[in-house]
Task: structure prediction
Amino acid sequence: SLPFFGGVIISLKWAEMRGLDTLATDGETIFFDPIAVARFASENALAGVIIHEVGHCVLGHCERIDLKTLDQDHKSIANQAADYCTNWLIDQFAQEWRDSHGGKESPIFKLPSGALRSEEHGPRSFEEIYHLLLSKWKKAGKPKPQPSPSGQLMPSPEGKPQGSGKGEDSQETG
Result:
């Protein structure tokens, strides 16, 4: 799994975006704020967030939903759904690492505290989780959704149709 993620990482573009306060992706580029990056407690913590963003790219989250058509509440729900999906996958890789390294924690597949996790949402697709969260949000009277703590999905670059580019397994988040 590490060589796979390494291959994806080197295929992505990287761009500084001051004021972002975290990392984010549009499926092709990882955006970062150097001030936010400097606040990570360790290189392993930063690596966990980078793997999280790469996970969005691998899973094709930015290409599977047109964020430009969503209002802020629905974007927040989409970000949460993408994070639950991505974090579940990363947790599976972390477990695989522990199993093959005598219970030792992975230095890479370690998500920051507060990362969105729920047994209810894994293993499910981004779309399944989005519709589950949307249904709960509507039943609760549409309260303001909480922002995702891990980062955010970014709209696809201008002029690039949704769903084109790197294929179904490319993505973004946060």
